[in-house]
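Input structure tokens:
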């Protein structure tokens, strides 16, 4: 896989760690195009990713949340599978979370899998990799963006 075909989008909502995440992308993927989209107006992650997609020149497009919670090197794992699949969705390993949040998250994941028949463990993950030609025009701007991008897969 040639890295010069890769565009990495970093959606951000005034994230304090965004410069470090950008630097990590440039260090680990030196030939990739790195696009930071700061959503200063709170229009949503979907808006930021779509804006980045419009700027992206790569045949492969990844997005990684700009908050630094996901190590940029995780993208190497997704790249191993992109020849076999149109969309590869990562899994964010959650550290210990409060019981109430864990129950709500588990219920949400179950509901998404049930309603949309998705074989996806974490539709809300902040790291995904797409072939450019699989990105639909109908993607929403806001919260539903992450569900749309999972359904297309």
């Amino acid at each position: 896989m040639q890295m010069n075909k890769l565009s990495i989008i970093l959606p951000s909502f005034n994230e304090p760690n965004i410069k470090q995440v950008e630097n990590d992308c440039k260090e680990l993927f030196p030939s990739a195009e790195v696009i930071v989209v700061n959503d200063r107006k709170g229009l949503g992650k979907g808006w930021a990713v779509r804006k980045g997609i419009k700027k992206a020149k790569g045949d492969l497009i990844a997005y990684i949340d700009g908050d630094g919670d996901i190590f940029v090197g995780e993208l190497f794992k997704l790249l191993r599978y992109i020849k076999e699949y149109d969309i590869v969705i990562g899994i964010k390993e959650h550290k210990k979370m409060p019981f109430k949040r864990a129950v709500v998250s588990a219920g949400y994941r179950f509901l998404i899998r049930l309603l949309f028949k998705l074989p996806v463990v974490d539709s809300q993950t902040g790291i995904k990799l797409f072939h450019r030609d699989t990105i639909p025009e109908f993607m929403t701007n806001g919260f539903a963006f992450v569900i749309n991008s999972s359904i297309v897969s």
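Strands lie at 6-12, 33-38, 60-64, 87-89, 127-131. The longest helix spans residues 99-116.
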